[in-house]
Amino acid sequence: MTAPLVGLQDQTLGWGGQAVLRGIDLSLSAGERVVLLGRSGVGKSTLLAALQGGIAARVALVPQDHGLVGSLSVFHNVWMGVLDDHGTASNLRTLVWPAKAQRARVEAVLEVVGLGTLGRRTVGRLSGGQRQRVALARALLRRGDVVLGDEPVTALDPSQGALLLTHLVTQFPTAVLALHDIDQALRTATRIVGLRGGGIVLDAPAADLTAVDLLALYR
Ligand SMILES: Nc1ncnc2c1ncn2[C@@H]1O[C@H](COP(=O)(O)OP(=O)(O)OP(=O)(O)O)[C@@H](O)[C@H]1O
């Protein structure tokens, strides 16, 4: 049996000494597509942060707040996904004068998210949905062993969101996604983890669950 990518055992998770989740046991294996579900504020982002902190493999992130720099161009924000693959001198050069090959790599992922013509646009001038697509493009450029997405398509229309979510999970061997849409969770996940009342109350293969089972997390 291969070792898990991360294993949390009886962990208390929270912020600034304040516990949000208690008694958390969760291990993530390569190849899984885990969706985290639960009411707003229950601790999905908190759990994602703990998983991120524990994974030693290469991780691409799609944070809930997008994590973009509004004063920089779309190109530069997407390129941030691979900043740690390059040295400081190279990154400074890219900031001032991106090479043609770098532009081409970024344009390829911008095409995928439907922002092919907006590479030079300042992120501060984009709509919410466009910003989310920049964050998705940054993760797609980064690639990696695991993608962690915190409501990664909530700002998109349902059809575009479904397409990009499907694309995202096919680009990474392993995914953990916090979602709000139960049907999307059932379509996307191999495993669903449900949070309620400060802990994990459900951890089961998606194939064994129905929408009715998942609605219980929100009552
Ligand atoms: N960076 C942070 N610093 C301090 N407290 C935080 C931080 N992130 C979340 N919290 C707190 O942790 C608790 C759980 O929030 P969290 O964002 O994990 O929930 P969530 O299930 O992801 O919610 P939502 O679905 O609304 O995004 C909340 O009380 C929130 O205020």
Structure in words:
By secondary structure, the protein is α/β, with parallel strands linked by helices. It has two domains: 1-58 and 144-219, P-loop containing nucleotide triphosphate hydrolases (Rossmann fold, 3-Layer(aba) Sandwich); 68-142, no CATH class. 36% of the residues lie in helices and 24% in strands. The protein has eight helices and eight strands. The protein has helices at residues 44-54, 74-79, 88-96, 100-112, 128-142, 158-170, 182-188, 211-215, and strands at 6-15, 18-28, 33-37, 59-62, 146-150, 174-178, 191-196, 199-205. Strands 4-5-6-3-7-8 form a six-stranded mixed sheet, sandwiched between helices. It is globular. The termini are far apart. The model has no long low-confidence stretch (mean pLDDT 95). Residues 15-16, 20, 38, 40-46, 64, 178 line the site of adenosine-5'-triphosphate (ATP). Adenosine-5'-triphosphate binds next to helix 1. GO terms for molecular function: ATP binding; ATP hydrolysis activity. Residues 6-214 form the ABC transporter domain. Pfam families: ABC_tran. Keywords: ATP-binding, Nucleotide-binding, Transport. It comes from Loktanella fryxellensis.
> How far is it from the N-terminal to the C-terminal residue, by CA?
38 Å
Task: Give the low-confidence spans.
Answer: none
Q: What would CATH call the architecture of the largest domain?
A: 3-Layer(aba) Sandwich
CATH topology descriptor of the largest domain: Rossmann fold
Number of helices: 8
Provide the helix percentage. 25-40%
Order of helices and strands: EEEHEHHHHEHEHEEH
Globular, elongated, flat, extended or rod-shaped: what is the shape? globular
Count of spatially separate domains: 2
CATH class term of the largest domain: Alpha Beta
Structural category is alpha/beta
Mean pLDDT: 95
What is the CATH superfamily label of the largest domain? P-loop containing nucleotide triphosphate hydrolases
Report the C-alpha radius of gyration, rounded.
18 Å
Q: How many runs of DSSP E, i.e. beta strands? A: 8
